[in-house]
Design goal:
By secondary structure, the protein is α/β, with parallel strands linked by helices. The protein starts with 12 loop residues before the first helix and ends with a helix. A 7-stranded mixed β-sheet has the order 1-9-8-5-4-2-3, with helices on both faces. The chain has a 3-stranded antiparallel β-sheet with strand order 10-11-12. Strands 6-7 form a two-stranded antiparallel sheet. It binds pyridoxal-5'-phosphate. Pyridoxal-5'-phosphate binds next to α3 and α4.
């Protein structure tokens, strides 16, 4: 039987030609192709939400983008930042880069997204403990919702809590391009996941919904945040390399106004990004089709729980939950057997609160976030990539089902 990879980028002639053109142009690093990528990206977003053109800053990864966005909203030493434990390590590590502290929040029951009730509960607890060690002197500064799997978080609830507690909102939108949250009353209108808070960050990592191999995009409608990100992504220099190249006046002159970072994306990758962006809705349609087949196959199967879906779901992941009451294999055994049978799978995510670094730093126990732990212990991400054929999808379903059948309690 054919082996089916967990993920595979969708790269065609257009991408190949775009990269070749960039290679032959004589300009490889950040330049006019990146400016064009940012412009195309902004217009893509504006075309759908009809609001002001957002500021879009292309960077070399979403991790860099999250770091820049958090720096730009003023997160620093002595600040607390709330994030779900159910996320990739990037979301938390950038908080530590800035000297701020991570506070984990549990996910919804049987879910994958930050639970607004748990968020509020955590904030109340921090409020009560604010004069005691270890919270003394620390200030709750921001919340980072993660639009897990491309399904937007309950942003109305999170925004209202954030307002009440005066928190900044940085959206980890690594999975959610494109996730348009339609207005319930007027489906023609709505908001983009990534543009509901102060700033949002998309990822173009190789397995993400559109890819540049490595890359990311910071988006915001706040000019001050955008200006800060632009300076800090390029060594804290007050003008871009491209501006110095293309503006004959004083091409060698620049000023360092901050000790910034080097997080720029090369034009070779931006060219790839522009070609992928033109396909974004087609790729979304292909993922939706696969997800619908999975939903149909597993919805009424008592051995499994299908992932929640809804308004604006980009369908980046397909986390299938095993029901341990029925299936005797645990998640690890199930995953291993699937891989033996040629089905590439993954697990999203190993909760951060169980990782040695965070466990030790914040004295955490696995059971401190019970829903997160439960989700982790029971969930397998199935392959869902554009270009997967229906027969490959059927093969995944048949293999998963027969494995469950052969291991019933
Ligand atoms: C992939 C991912 C990131 C990091 O993206 P990079 O572009 O690889 O830096 C951040 N957060 C989440 C939830 C991710 O899945």
């Amino acid at each position: 039987m054919e082996t089916i990879p967990f993920a595979k980028p969708f790269i065609g002639k257009e991408e190949e030609e775009a990269v070749l053109t960039a290679l032959r142009s004589g300009w490889l690093t950040t330049g006019k192709e990146t400016l064009a990528f940012e412009k195309d990206f902004g217009e893509f977003l504006q075309n759908r939400d009809g609001l002001d053109l957002p500021f879009c800053m292309a960077v070399n990864s979403a991790t860099s983008g999250l770091h820049l966005a958090m720096e730009a909203v003023g997160i620093g030493k002595g600040d607390l930042v709330l994030i779900p434990s159910m996320t990739f390590t990037s979301t938390a590590e950038v908080v530590r880069y800035l000297g701020a502290e991570v506070v984990f929040v549990d996910v919804l029951k049987d879910g994958y997204h930050m639970d607004p009730a748990a968020l509020e509960c955590t904030l109340r607890k921090l409020e009560l403990e604010k004069d005691e060690t270890p919270s003394r002197g620390l200030k709750v500064k921001a919340v980072v919702p993660v639009h897990y799997g491309g399904l937007p978080c309950d942003m109305d609830a999170i925004i209202s809590i954030a307002r009440k507690y005066g928190l900044k909102i940085i959206e980890d939108a690594a999975h959610s391009f494109p996730s348009f949250i339609q207005d319930e009353n007027n489906p023609a209108k709505g908001r983009w996941a990534g543009l509901t808070g102060d700033a949002g960050v998309f990822s173009f990592y190789a397995t993400k919904t559109i890819t540049t191999g490595e890359g990311g995009m910071v988006v915001t409608r706040d000019k001050a945040i955008a200006d800060r990100v632009k300076i800090m992504r390029s060594h804290g220099i007050d003008r871009s390399v491209w501006d110095r190249y293309s503006n004959v006046k004083a091409s060698w002159y620049y000023q360092v106004v901050e000790p910034g970072y080097k997080y720029n994306i090369p034009d070779i990758l931006s060219a790839l990004g522009r070609a992928q962006l033109r396909r974004a809705y087609d790729l979304l349609a292909m993922r939706k089709k696969i997800a619908a087949i999975y939903d149909e196959a597993f919805r009424d199967d008592r051995n499994f729980l299908i992932p929640p879906t809804g308004n604006g779901d980009a369908r980046h992941l397909y986390p299938l939950r095993l029901c341990p009451e029925n299936i005797s294999l645990n998640r690890n055994e199930f995953a291993e057997k699937l891989q033996e049978r040629g089905i590439g799978i993954s697990v999203h995510f190993i909760p951060l609160h169980t990782m040695p670094y965070y466990k030790k730093r914040y004295s955490l126990e696995d059971n401190d976030f019970p829903e997160t732990l439960k989700t982790f212990n029971r969930t397998i991400s199935l392959p869902i990539w554009p270009g997967m054929t229906e027969s490959q999808v059927d093969q995944v379903i048949a293999t998963v089902k027969s494995l469950a059948q052969s291991s019933l309690n």
